[in-house]
Design a protein that fits this description.
With 200 residues, this protein is an alpha/beta fold. It contains six helices and five strands, in the order ββαβααββααα. The chain has helices spanning 52-65, 76-82, 84-98, 132-153, 161-164, 170-179; strands spanning 13-19, 28-34, 68-74, 105-109, 121-124. The protein is globular.
């Protein structure tokens, strides 16, 4: 099934999506993308369905062709303060606010969003597999977040964030058991399966 270009009849329709919601460490990152209506690319799809190589190939194409794009990190301290759902929506709002073109309509991956300014919006379950602009946003959110996780990997290589990007792999959890947590870990998350309370 090929992805559709627009949900609404507006030309300046923005797609937004986030990456890193289920991670134990690092930010949740969102991107917002307004694509030209004529934009097509045979490889463009939900970032989770693409290899890292394909995501890296698509990133500069999206950035070159987009009418406007931006991304935003919401850090672990904020996630702990306002919870991951609110932090995900905040990241999407921040990304939309950073666009240099104000969108006329916003389409959001998922089923939860809060209105931004007075821009009409629609939430779309699995939107990143249905609409090009949401798929493009999913790729930018994922690649910018991955690059950040690779950077902080240098500081704490024992957690192997270069590989797991902060997701709850067995290796990541074993490292938390061995070394404890870092300033990048989300303290309100269940960092270990057997954890009732974390000694911070």
């Amino acid at each position: 099934m090929s992805l559709k270009s627009n949900y609404s009849s507006f030309h300046l329709e923005c797609g937004t999506d986030e990456a890193g919601r289920g991670c134990l460490a690092g930010p949740v990152t969102a991107a917002a993308v307004i694509l030209p209506m004529r934009f097509r690319h045979p490889l463009l799809n939900d970032s989770k369905l693409l290899s890292e190589k394909r995501r890296m190939l698509l990133k500069p194409i999206i950035e070159l062709e987009a009418i406007s794009f931006s991304f935003s990190h919401v850090w672990q301290e904020e996630i702990d303060a306002i919870n991951i759902l609110n932090a995900s929506i905040l990241a999407m709002h921040n990304a939309i606010n950073k666009l240099n073109t104000i969108p006329e309509f916003v389409i959001v991956d998922g089923n939860r969003f809060k209105p931004i300014k007075s821009i009409p919006h629609e939430t779309i379950i699995k939107g990143d597999r249905k609409y090009l602009s949401i798929a493009a946003a999913s790729i930018l959110a994922k690649t910018y977040r991955d690059a950040y996780m690779e950077k902080i990997h240098e500081e704490y290589p024992m957690y192997n964030w270069k590989q797991n990007k902060g997701y709850p792999t067995k290796e990541h959890r074993d490292a938390i058991r061995t070394y404890g947590i870092t300033k990048y870990h989300r303290k309100t998350f269940r960092l270990l399966p057997e954890q009732l309370k974390l000694d911070v």
